[in-house]
Amino acid sequence: MENIKEDRRIRRTKKLLKQALAQLMDEKDFKDITVKDITERADLNRGTFYLHYTDTYDILNKIEDEILKNIQNMIDQNIEKTNASDSVIPALKPIAEYIMENADICRCLINNKASVDFIEKFQNLIYDNCSDIIKRRHNVKDSKQNEFYLSFITLGIIGMVKKWLETRPMVSAEEIVVFVDQIMTYSSAALK
Amino acid sequence: MENIKEDRRIRRTKKLLKQALAQLMDEKDFKDITVKDITERADLNRGTFYLHYTDTYDILNKIEDEILKNIQNMIDQNIEKTNASDSVIPALKPIAEYIMENADICRCLINNKASVDFIEKFQNLIYDNCSDIIKRRHNVKDSKQNEFYLSFITLGIIGMVKKWLETRPMVSAEEIVVFVDQIMTYSSAALK
DNA sequence: GTAATAATCAACAAAATGTTTATTATCATT
DNA sequence: AATGATAATAAACATTTTGTTGATTATTAC
Q1: CA–CA dist B26, A146 (Å, integer)
Q2: pLDDT in tens, A75-127
Q3: Closest protein residue to D9 using CA and C1' atoms?
Q4: Picking from A135-149, B56-70, B159-173, which range would have the lowest pLDDT averaged per residue?
């Protein structure tokens, strides 16, 4: 899958560039961030950026994908637990915990005015991991209704996560997951 | 509020620029669209663009705001009807109809990878117009739960609208609104 | 018909983009 | 420690985009 191990210099450079971008995104709109901004902040040559990324949107996407890959791994590690249970809580809890641990960068990405990509990818991740459970729980007749329901639920959850990331001090992962489960359970009654 | 009436030349220019942008957004990512692209497509001088907008993000925002202003007007015109009823259907139906009529541009804005602004603004609009009704229907105790619930619902609705805009042929406005109402009604039980 | 002003054209400086070449620094490996 | 591979640098470059300017033409409202 991935190259046995990247050269230490490459790891260092990519890390510095990503850190620099994350910093800058806290300071201004993504659209106003240039390659020069990033490399200056990272204290690297501008040309070095182009050795690893094509443009600012490319590095942003890589950051997003990394976060989502980590979340997917969390889920995969708990897949047995999830299948054993009939609740979505075991599936959602590790995600919530990971988001809690990486709240700063997640808040940054979810609020980022540059791209709906992250939200869309996140929604797809939730869909891919929850739709089976939901479908199993409610043997839905009308597939059209089911599709709308899943779109509603999956983006709705992101709405909650977004609100959650704004709470100070942050509501616990446990608490938010229980509430997500509640709201999913009740709203699914609309399918009957 | 607005200047009695804009010069006909200005109206024409703005319209051409907006049309050109809408066309281009169907063809490529917003981030790759330049001022030159827009003015060339509109067959106008590049300098003319800067007489009306500061940059590509500015004109995009203006288009978004116009759509949302129209939706808000639809709602305001039916405010009495909405207050009389205790359902959200009268509030949502004119919105759904307007979206249906302007499906192309709405699909463009809601899927636009350049900006989460539209979705955020749209969510706020739904919130502003529905939160009172929801709060009235369910006298919620825990305000924290209530906030999460509203974030869930308002973005969830947008998820459905997004899915709805992808249906071919498009599901009727009537149908989608009834389903939104259903799902809102049932999911609100999670607040009890 | 006239005064006001929008749009055009051409030119411009400044900034950002993306690429290239030669050079230096660091790496993994033995 | 020495070595071959390669990442990062520095400097330069053409190209594109950005905003702005001033003079001119065309259209508008009245």
Answers
A1: 29
A2: 888 877 777 777 778 878 888 999 999 999 999 899 876 666 889 999 999 88
A3: A45
A4: A135-149
Whole-model pTM?
Answer: 0.90
- Listed in sequence order, the DSSP H helices in B102-116 are 103-111
Residue A78 near residue A87, CB atoms below 8 Å: no
Residue B125 neighbours by CB under 8 Å, 6+ apart: B68, B71, B72
Q: Which residues in chain B have their CB less than 8 angstroms from residue A119's CB?
A: 116, 119
Helix pair A89-101, A173-187: axis angle to 10 deg: 140
Looking at beta carbons, which pairs linking B81-88 to residues 24 or more positions away fall under 8 Å?
Answer: B82/B133, B86/B133, B86/B136, B86/B137, B87/B181, B88/B130, B88/B133, B88/B134, B88/B180, B88/B181, B88/B184
Two tokens, residue A72: 């997917």
Cα A59 to Cα A54, A104, A123, B34, distances in angstroms: 8, 18, 20, 21
- Among A113, A158, A186, whose Cβ lies nearest the Cβ of B189? A186
Cα distances (Å, whole numbers) of residue A21 to A33, A46, A51, B118: 8, 14, 16, 24
